[in-house]
Amino acid sequence: MGIDLAFLWAAIIAFAVLAYVVLDGFDLGIGILFPLLGEKQARDDAMNSVAPVWDGNETWLVLGGGGLLAVFPLAYAIVLPALYAPIIAMLIGLVLRGVAFEFRWRTERGRFIWDWAFFFGSTVAALAQGIALGALVQGIRVEGRAYAGGWYDWLTPFSMATGIALLVGYALLGATWLIMKTEGDVQRRARRFAQPLAFALVAGILVFSVWTPFLEAKYMQRWFSFPSMLYAAPIPILTALAAWRLIASVREAQPSPDSTVARHEREPFLATLALFMLCYAGIGFSFYPHIVPSSVTIWDAAAPESSLMFLLVGASVLVPLILAYTAYAYWVFRGKVASGGGYH
Questions:
Q1: Is the pLDDT of residue 245 over 50?
Q2: Is there a domain that residue 342 lies in?
Q3: Alpha-carbon distances, residue 274 vs 39, 188, 336 (angstroms)
Q4: Angle 330-332-118 from CA coordinates, rounded to 5°
Q5: For the chain, give me the number of helices (H) and strands (E)?
Q6: Whole-angstrom Cα distance, residue 137 to residue 276?
Q7: Whether the Cβ atoms of residue 340 and residue 41 lie closer than 8 Å to each other
Q8: How many domains does the chain have?
Q9: Is residue 184 part of a domain?
Q10: Is residue 344 part of a domain?
Q11: How many CA atoms within 13 Å lie on the side-chain side of 251?
Q12: pTM to 2 decimals?
């Protein structure tokens, strides 16, 4: 039996998108919380906590988007016209966020402008990603092999609610990252933000868990028909456990007595990551085997086998390299950020 290259590539791209969400999510979350972090030094400390890794985190977005174009060109040709507005808004937000990250260190008089640009770019990018996700989950109209919807099909109550939910999730990732990586006033503020954000995220997951199956008959069948529901059962069970640990750990998180990262400071961030991964698994379970729900399957959208194999050779080198330098960067900067200084 040969390798199912289309399925393998779907797994690679799904992994790249997940890696982007969980890694760049806390960067965006810090930007969303930026105006609430206090004075200049607190904002500097928050930015220093992600300075060594933030641009590398976006590598996964390039891999996911570029891979979709190369490997699933039909899906790319359908999804892009359907989501032009939120995708363009996301890119503008990411560019503004990146420029602000660099420029705010170059000026004193105009620093406040770049602080607000960092906040605005992060917020717009997070909202746009959530809106695009919601529009994809609710379904894209396809006729033949082309997008058949209108310019504003992405603008629905479900997609807007998804945008707000992802904004809350990213803000929580940012807050729990700061609990883990900072000290003093920044950490105390992050703990105060994390508690209401944790409750808001768990409430949002409950709402969307009930709402989503009613969007498509196939979703309802996948989650509530036998025996499919048996395969789905671990996802809500593990999600409930992760939500419980998140809320409990946010309440328990206390400052470490030294410069190391203590277990009780790591757990809120890890629990939030677990929730993101489980929600992502739930979306994947709902979608499979479609890449454009519920019109185009993975195999319908895939490029020719020869192209998939050629690209797989490059990915077999590129993906391990990205994983290696990402892991090395996080290992080198595994400590805390000292107030007014760099990493311990």
A1: yes
A2: no
A3: 32, 23, 22
A4: 55
A5: 15, 4
A6: 16
A7: yes
A8: 1
A9: yes
A10: no
A11: 7
A12: 0.92
